[in-house]
Amino acid sequence: MPRTADHDERRRQVAEALLRTIARKGLAATTFADVADELGGSVGLVQRYFRSKSDLLRFGVEHLYRRGEERIEAVERVAPVRDLMFRIAHTLLPMDEERRMELTVWLEFLPNAVRDPEMAELHRTTTRQLVDGLAEGLDAARRLGELPADLDPHAEAAALVALADGLTLHQLATPDLFDDATAERLLRLHFDRLFSARAEEA
């Protein structure tokens, strides 16, 4: 058991070294040697766990997505649902150094999701899970009367993911126009409009 735990911990350390390196140098310029330097180990150590750069990248992206899932799971489940959903959506944005690093790597990864079938499936599966999870929350808000009865939870969840992705892109690429405060204000504005429909209906 300890040997398995040590193996898993070493793979996690390699994945985190990869993410830090890609965030600093970009995916195309990152080599096994760079990851080994970041890890404080040897190239042989990295290759002991990952035979190719694509294997390493795939594990790194899976690790990246797991960190995002853990962040969502850590959000306190307290009513009203509107506030809960806002807090969850807020975790999707690069609002601190850790998330900026992760989402910078995510943007580096996306072109591979277009060209590589395995990466595409990983991205598709993770995005579907995120949309489905948000849709469940919005459906709960609808059933509790916080949203209109005829609202389409899945469509609104997809729109929310698209908004978060767009804000992420601009926060990272044009922070002078989309700083953290602006991104948070725009996200809150979206929730104000979405949930105000119930008040207008009433």
From TrEMBL:
Alphabetical list of InterPro entries matching this protein: BetI_C, Homeodomain-like_sf, HTH-type_TetR-like_transc_reg, HTH_TetR, Tet_transcr_reg_TetR-rel_C_sf
Entry keyword Zinc-finger: no
Recorded GO MF terms: DNA-binding transcription factor activity; transcription cis-regulatory region binding
Name the record gives this protein: TetR family transcriptional regulator C-terminal domain-containing protein
SUPFAM superfamilies: Homeodomain-like (SSF46689), Tetracyclin repressor-like, C-terminal domain (SSF48498)
Domain of life (superkingdom): Bacteria
Pfam family, one: TetR_N
Organism from which the protein derives: Nocardiopsis eucommiae
Domain spans labelled HTH tetR-type: 8-68
DNA-binding region: 31-50
Alphabetized UniProt keyword annotations: DNA-binding, Repressor, Transcription, Transcription regulation
